[in-house]
Design a protein that fits this description.
about 350 residues; alpha/beta; 7-stranded parallel sheet
């Protein structure tokens, strides 16, 4: 069975969907290589992508239009069993749904948070409303939706009530989990991601601006008016804006930190949270995110969304932890990640989804 995974501009170090799709493709090559052929295609101008990724140079101002991609898909449409789309709103999403009218290709769509209420508010709202109406007409050509959390399942049903949904979380490679006790770390909090309004960074930074006894490092690209404004306004002795991270440096940075914090208005999953857990770094996350059971496993803390007093109480609780209590939370974080998000179990569930379609 030939399956093409399609994702927009790819960034191996930063992008949550990129990490997830890479893990899926890698998992199928390990556990299902005799039954499935998975290919990862993307739209990027980068010259340094891994060999297993097929890239088409896009015209970003035209919703990532690529003439070479358009011709290749049409030419090979009879040899493709399933196309698994990731994200939404780009040229190739609409083109694949259009092509489904003229072929036997089955289509799976992983919205990757695109249908979340907060996500729909961001960017060019008018343009999204137009595209959403077009998408609603085409969505019946989607044979299955892949949600990564219960919340994303609700978001999909709000857009398309007849959706056939498979709820399968993102995965991690168990070989990446560091099962050694975590003894060498700095007493600091970190935040990692893209500096974007949906991440609720003002709330995070204003909190640390008040709590001068707590140290925060913010990692993400400072390449937009919004990110530059944040950097200029909130930079202080206890708040540092850092450079982008490579995959290797990200893992090291996470493992050397005491806690990762995540304050987003919305995340369909939040892959960086999982990346933190496998390094034995507990997390503090908003209860608006799909990690509400993190406290049940003593692998971190949740706070009431946008409640600064509750957020501060969890920060202080983390800051005052004894070494022995912290070690328990650190080990629990790794065990929680291993039990719930193993690559093998995610591949098994996605295999069942694919087999239902052919």
């Amino acid at each position: 069975m030939r399956i093409i995974h399609l994702i927009g501009d790819i960034n191996i170090a930063e992008s949550g969907p990129t990490q997830s799709v890479n893990c899926i493709v890698d998992g199928f090559s390990k556990y299902q290589k005799n039954s499935f052929t998975l290919e990862l295609w993307t739209f990027s101008s980068s010259e340094t992508l891994p060999e297993h990724i097929k890239s088409f140079k896009p015209r970003k101002k035209l919703f990532y239009f690529s003439w070479s991609f358009t011709k290749k898909i049409w030419k090979e449409r009879k040899s493709i069993d399933i196309i698994h789309l990731h994200g939404m709103w780009l040229y190739f999403h609409f083109y694949i749904l259009f092509i489904a009218f003229f072929s036997k290709i089955k289509v799976v769509l992983s919205p990757r948070g695109s249908f979340a209420i907060e996500a729909l508010k961001q960017g060019k709202n008018f343009t999204k409303k137009i595209l959403l109406n077009v998408i609603k007409i085409l969505l019946y050509k989607v044979n299955a939706f892949h949600a990564t959390s219960d919340q994303e399942k609700k978001d999909i049903l709000r857009i398309y009530k007849n959706a056939k949904i498979f709820n399968v979380p993102n995965c991690i490679n168990s070989n990446d989990i560091n099962f050694n006790n975590k003894n060498d770390f700095e007493n600091k909090f970190i935040w990692i991601g893209r500096l974007h309004p949906i991440k609720n960074l003002e709330f995070l930074l204003e909190t640390f601006n008040e709590k001068k006894n707590l140290n925060l490092e913010v990692y993400g690209p400072i390449n937009s008016d919004y990110s530059i404004k944040l950097c200029n306004h909130f930079k202080s002795n206890n708040i540092k804006f850092m450079n982008n991270l490579t995959v290797k440096s990200k893992n090291i940075t996470i493992s050397k930190s005491k806690f990762l914090v995540m304050t987003s208005f919305s995340e369909n999953f939040g892959i960086v949270i999982l990346e933190s857990l496998i390094q034995g770094t507990p997390v503090i996350v908003s209860d608006a995110l799909p990690w509400k059971d993190i406290e049940d496993y003593s692998a971190g803390f949740t706070y009431k969304a946008n409640d600064q007093l509750d957020f501060i109480s969890k920060l202080e609780l983390a800051n005052k932890m004894t070494d022995s209590d912290y070690l328990k939370y650190s080990n629990n974080a790794k065990n929680y990640a291993y039990e719930k998000f193993s690559q093998q179990s995610v591949v098994k569930n996605l295999k069942e989804m694919y087999l239902c379609l052919v």
